[in-house]
Structures are given as structure tokens and as C-alpha cells.
Amino acid sequence: MKFRTEIFVPPSDFKLSYACKIAMQGSCFAENMASKFLNAGFSIDLNPFGIAYNPLSLSRNLNRLSDNMPYVSDELFEDNGIYHSFSHHSRFSGTDSNEVLAEINSRMEQASVFLRTARLLIVTFGTAFVYRLQSNGNVVSNCHKLPAKLFSYKRLTIEEIVREWDELIIRLQTLYPSLRILFTVSPIRHWKDGAHENQLSKSVLLLSVEELLRKHSHCSYFPAYEILLDDLRDYRFYTEDMLHPSSQAIDYVWEKFTEAWFDGETLKKARDFEKIHQALNHVPFHPESEAYRQFREKAETRLRELK
Q1: Secondary structure of residue 73 in the 3-state scheme
Q2: 3-state secondary structure of 150
């Protein structure tokens, strides 16, 4: 007897190896998966603008990254003594505007160089809703807790997303001919929009990705959303807020991904990396002991050998 609707992910025609650099941008689910790639020993570049959720912000961030056009002081704003960028997560904010700009531009330069040799770009859409500044109509990645009256709130249409991303994909293919693009839709629900609006938002994202795949053969889709919402249809696979996936759920999604996207040798090495990281993260009863010191030394030596 079967008690769940397991999702089987078809093998990808493009297999990842350790020669492949991977750029990742998108919602906090992208950060969950990035930690798995890092523990598996891959070379990745994650969210050079910080977490971004909506397709328009992600597209414009990637265009800016491709141009490698530095930010200037006029693109920052100050609120209560803190300088922010509407294109960046608050992790880039600070009290000194020059330091904020320096960090933003240094991170963008690093990511721009990385993208030139990346073989795979993984993009995770989180929501189809966008905030626009009332003053100029620009979409923002982060509102930085400014008053709601400064923004308008709208759900993007499929046509708006496809038009924006169709142009971007063509541009990226011209600039980086060997780059593949993998789309995912974050399984994390945006509950503040309400259950129905969240479903509509995710549906817009899924239909937009489907249309982009129809247009561009070098683009693919990985069903992280479906795995968590249909395969793992149980609240034991969520954290305490009942919205974010648990570590066990992330492990399961990762397992599905590796089976579909890794070749045999890469899969074996990835599991070796993961075992060593798991051992190194284990907290012993007596961390000061000679036995534990020797254990760590042996594990770190093995990690260097694998790298």
C-alpha cells in the first residue's frame, strides 16, 4: 500500500560535475539549497544582492550584474541614520554610506566575474507580488520597513514576467553562451498575503516558468514546490512557523535534486563531502580531548584531499 504521492524527478540531460560553477539567486529557499551545495564541495555564488523574492527584482539584479555597473551614492537612501539600497537586502545596510557602497560594489564585482565562467544559474522565484515606490514607480527588492504609504502593492501578470525574463534570457545567452538556467519556485508560502492570494501568486510563477521553458530549450525546471507541497504533505516537514521547510525536508529535496542532476562520480563525491561535514559539525562530550583533536585533524585532512 502507498500512503503518499511521491514525485519522481526525471534525470536532467545536463549533469553537474565539480568543474561546474553554480550561480544562485532568489528567495530564502535558494539559501537553504546553497548551504547543501557548499557542504557538497561545490563552487557557488549566492545572492550578491541578498535575498530577493519577486521576478522583476531578480531580473533587474541580473541585468545590473551583467553590466557590472557600480552603484553610486544617489542610489542609496538614509532612514534613521542607516543607509539602504532598495535593490539590496538589509545585510548591506550601514551607518556609513561610503562603506555601504564599497561593500555593495565589491560584492557585485565578485559575482560579475563569477558569472562569466558559471555553467548553471539557479533562479528561485518566491512571490509574484511586488512593491513599487509611489514616487517613481520603481519595483523594490526590499522595503526596509519604511511606511506602507510610500509603496503600491500589486501582483504581476504572467505576461509581465515572461516579457521581462524572455529579454533577459536572450541577453544572458548572448553574453554567456555556455550558461544553463534552472528555475525553481520556492515552496515557502507568503502567508501575509492570505492563503488564496498565496496560491494565485505561486500559480502565476509556475505558469510563467512553463512559458519560458517553452521558449528556451536551455532552461529547465526543478519541482521543489511540488515536492514539498504534494510529496511531503505533512506539517512535520515544516519548522515551528508552519511555513518554512524543516532540515529534514531540505535534505529530501536535495536528495531528489542530486539524483536527477549529478552524474555517478559527482554524486559519490558529494556524499563523501556531506559525511565529513556532518562529522565535523558533531559536538562531542569532550571537545578538549586528544582523541577528538586527532579525529578533527583526520577529517580536515580528508576534506582537503577531496577538494
Answers
A1: helix
A2: helix
